[in-house]
Design goal:
mainly alpha
Length: 237
């Protein structure tokens, strides 16, 4: 009886967090997703799109791994990234357009899928030979730290940050696709006379930027929470 009461209260008091997306493509993407959601056939549903997004990201990781033997797999990886964008971005929009929102279920499943997909993608990149495993793991660790900060901020501040500055998931996919096209021509880049793997260079820059973002956002949110809940002096005895 007590468990049922707790579950009822939790559901009744759950509130959707305010969604913030300031990415470069945010406005254009929102219009495109609404247009597609309004015209999607009835057999298309949000759960199916979520599975499409996860499957496509895992497939992208497999394609990256295959580039060790044939770099043309990079083109297939671009297709998988596009399908991942479709599934990952359209599922929530479709649910909102059809008024079939499941806030707790959607938030939990979407972000577990994001974590699993990121692991698959980074493992595929690590196995590809396009960059060193250390770089791939550094990107994965920093991504998971940044994601964790976002989820904690959603709970504590009721604000879900979909982007960090002008970069969001869509911008990252676009940069990956451009990197694929560049690596298809040559997997190497020359910087100050040193020959480096192109994806190693991009991965180190990406990991460093995400680390700085994570530290900066965590510091800002900590200060904001402290202002909201300052330490009160102990009462005089």
């Amino acid at each position: 009886m007590g468990t049922r009461a707790i579950r009822t209260v939790d559901y009744a008091t759950f509130r959707n967090a305010r969604r913030v997306n300031q990415a470069l493509t945010a406005r254009m993407e929102k219009r495109a997703l609404n247009w597609m959601a309004e015209r999607a056939p009835q057999w298309v549903n949000s759960d199916g799109l979520t599975l499409l997004g996860l499957g496509a990201q895992i497939a992208a990781g497999i394609c990256y791994a295959l580039t060790r033997w044939d770099r043309r797999a990079l083109l297939l990886a671009i297709v998988c990234l596009a399908l991942n964008w479709l599934g990952d971005s359209l599922d929530g929009t479709l649910a909102r357009v059809r008024r079939q929102e499941r806030p707790r279920y959607g938030f939990y499943v979407d972000h577990m899928v994001d974590i699993l997909g990121a692991v698959a993608l980074m493992c595929g990149l690590g196995a590809s030979g396009l960059l060193h495993w250390a770089t791939a793991m550094a990107m994965l660790v920093v991504f998971l730290v940044l994601s964790s900060e976002s989820y904690l901020a959603t709970y504590t501040l009721s604000c879900f940050q979909l982007s960090q500055g002008i970069f969001g998931p869509t911008e990252i996919r676009i940069l990956l696709a451009l990197g694929n096209l560049a690596a298809l021509r040559s997997p190497y880049s020359t910087v100050f006379g040193h020959r480096l793997l192109l994806f190693d260079l991009g991965g180190v820059i990406a990991a460093a930027v995400m680390a700085v973002m994570a530290i900066g956002v965590a510091a800002r949110h900590t200060a904001e929470l402290y202002r909201q809940e300052p330490l009160k002096p102990e009462p005089l005895k």
